[in-house]
Design goal:
heterodimer; A: 8-stranded mixed beta sheet; 10% helix; B: mainly alpha; 3-stranded mixed beta sheet; 55% helix
Chain lengths: 371, 150
Amino acid sequence: MAMSKAKTLPEEIIIDILYLLPVKSIGLWRCVSKQWNNFLSDPQFIKSHFNLHAHKQEEKLILVNWFRQLHTITFDHYEIYNEIDGISRKLNFDQLSDNWVTVAGSCNGLVLVVDRENIIFLINPTTLKYHKVPVSDLSLPLRGSNNRRSCNMYGLGYDVVSDDYKVVNLSYYDTENYEYWADSFVDMYSVRKGVWKRLETPYDHSLTDLASGVLINGALHWLARRKTEYSTLIAAFDLTDEKFFELPGPLDLSNNCFMCNLAAIRGCLSICTSISRDNDTITFWMMKEYGVKESWTKFKITEPNVDRSLSTLLCSITDDDVLFDIDEELVVYDMKENQRMDLMVDVKHMGEVQTFIDSLISPSFVQETEG
Amino acid sequence: MSSTKLLTLKTSDGEEFKLDEAVAVKSQAIKNMVEDDCVSNAIPLPNVDSKTMTKVIEYWKKHSEEGVSKDQLNDFDKGFLEVHHSVLYDLLLAANYLNDKELVDVICQEVADRIKGKTPEEIRKEFDIKNDFTPEEEEKIRQENAWAFD
């Protein structure tokens, strides 16, 4: 049997081939020899490999189930009638117990997860590496003065300028008796620096539903309100400038239409809205050109007798499918066929649902090797 | 339109191939030689045998054809790459030597698709790489990358 000719391939060709391998294969190659382990563990390789694959990756879902376990869901491409099969897999982390509350953000294959003690972790669901985000001195205690409960919202993003993953925490004390606004705090954690710092927000974040920041274009987006007004606006936190700015909502919002929740659909900022006279319709909008008010495009889905207060727009799965949480069930809409499909999956989710892609990106800051 | 100048390529086993210059310059190496004006006689290609050169020319000709749709090219490429892995590596080495980046990329993707499930032992055998881990080191690396093994 002739010896493999692969051994005559020059190293730079082997490297070209490695860049084309999927994430799992890189893990296998790391076990081949010391040289390849060093090369394939280097943050430079990891970043370049990620950039090459990011656009062609399949999105998977990640969520916490009722047993407080973390599960991922991959989709079976074979669709039968009105069903899409989802294959769920429980994630097990070294030395971490299953005490999760919700997922709270996703970026470049890293996912933010919150546990029952309000500790947040940055995890890579593919490589199972994790980083426990240190508790901030600035974070609000569970109960403040007047015995008011503290509330927290999170967001995760990547600052391309400083090559840094950042976690944003919006917090406030719960307002009871319908006081019209409360002080909101913004804290930001830099993975590279390993520290939290307090920033400013001109908005009141306490009067909208708790939701994780939606990451689009290097900014995290939340619905918020101005401190003295009643209407909701879209507040965007720029991860590089570390400042808030505002985005215009859809052109067609009238008095009877409210912005309910934000989501990223096919890379576009999207809003699910509630129009009080539409009982059989879920309406959502996609901002096709970021920042351009006129580019808001309306989509309608027919869902008889839907309770829009229980409908949350979640994410897009393929080019045509959009995922909703309707009364705690995951429902997929095929926008092309205008058809509702049930997601057949054996996990019941608690809290939010995020999408992620396979990557080698490390959740901890790894010093790059010189040269 | 440039003149249909014919170039002669001579492979390692002495066979000669006549080819339109316009097609042959898909190889950056040949293009450089043409520009440096050293192509009066046959261009020697000592690192490519005639069997491999035939395949490369087949690829070049198809990708130079007019009126071929992207789908047709994809179908051609798929069939073109359905070869035994030793032929594939010969093609890759030739494409690299001839400096045809497009062909190198296409073949690299095919190789990647074929080897992606290989275990570390299979990889070492295929690429003749020495295992320089101590048993303890190897155990540690495998643990760290256990996620890749399921």
